Amino acid sequence: MTEIFSLEYPQSLGVFDDYAGAQKAVDHLSDEGFPVENCLIVGTELRQVERVTGRLTTGRVLMAGAGSGAWLGLLIGILLGLFAGEDQWVPTVLGAIGLGIVFGVVSGLLGYAATRGRRDFSSVQRIVATKYEVLVEHKFLAQGQQLLAKLPGRPVDL
Q1: 115 shares its domain with 61
Q2: Where is 26: in which H helix or E strand?
Q3: Does residue 61 share a domain with residue 107?
């Protein structure tokens, strides 16, 4: 871990159920003149959450592949078009888009076929923390505890 994301002797100042609570505590410390550069907010109890967004069919794979291929082709076409003559700019861009669509469709279908029906759905994934702990350098722990004792609506476990 890089130095900016570490403390020499970290001590727990409090555990919060959400990021907003941890952020509010550090903001309160800042408002009170506490040296907040000695604090870390650490997400703990991590979970991977996967939201299923729909059924994956050959048609959806074709459309997604064509769409991403078209964007890639457009990007490459514009770059190549910069070096093409004035009368060749449009054919260069359109040709690159066409090749991009073909590439996107073929690569999408190959990827879909490789799963062999084991994953016939689309989804998005995210890692989320269920708790947020505010850590502080050990020499500032007592001062931080005193200041957080004055925090309105503070959690019980501070």
Answers
A1: yes
A2: helix 19-31
A3: yes
